[in-house]
Specification:
mainly alpha, 165 residues
Length: 165
């Protein structure tokens, strides 16, 4: 069974698209890894960009809506993980401490998500939006636009590398 799933994922365009989406959903990898992986698997660049952006956006509303409750639950029911949660929140609050991010909430969040560097992106942007108490209807479009910009930057870098090879 697992072999047939693996063959389908690598063998069809739909499978490659789905795998690119799944890679782009992973917190640290996001579309910075998903998009080049999709291109490396043979997806056309526009399809890889679409899969990367869609995959990167899937967790965003869930993070914004539920992360505070999840953190609270973990602290109550799994106290040994409380230190990890404190570190995660501490890092997000440190990024939130940027004056531009607080003063220009939407623009700061957009720029933060749009820069495709480690520690930035949709996951951290959604966590910051939750900590800033941004409403879902205000945060998701801003994060989406940031993900699209990051995707275009990663696409340009990926296209540059693939055209050299």
């Amino acid at each position: 069974m697992f072999q047939s799933i693996s063959q389908w994922l690598h063998g069809t365009a739909a499978g490659k698209f789905l795998l690119t989406m799944l890679i782009s959903m992973v917190p640290v990898a996001e579309l910075r890894v998903g998009l080049p992986a999709g291109v490396a698997m043979g997806l056309p660049i526009p399809a890889a960009l679409l899969a990367g952006v869609l995959g990167n956006m899937v967790p965003v509303p869930f993070v914004i809506l539920f992360i505070r409750r999840i953190f609270k639950w973990i602290r109550v029911h799994l106290p040994k993980l409380g230190g990890l949660i404190d570190r995660i929140e501490g890092r997000a609050y440190a990024k939130l401490g940027s004056r531009a991010l607080v003063r220009y909430q939407a623009w700061g969040l957009l720029l933060f998500v749009a820069v495709p560097l480690p520690g930035t992106g949709a996951w951290t942007g959604a966590l910051i939006a939750a900590l800033m108490d941004l409403r879902l209807k205000n945060a998701v479009p801003v994060i989406f636009l940031g993900v699209v910009i990051a995707g275009l930057i990663v696409t340009a870098l990926t296209y540059g590398v693939t055209s050299i090879i």
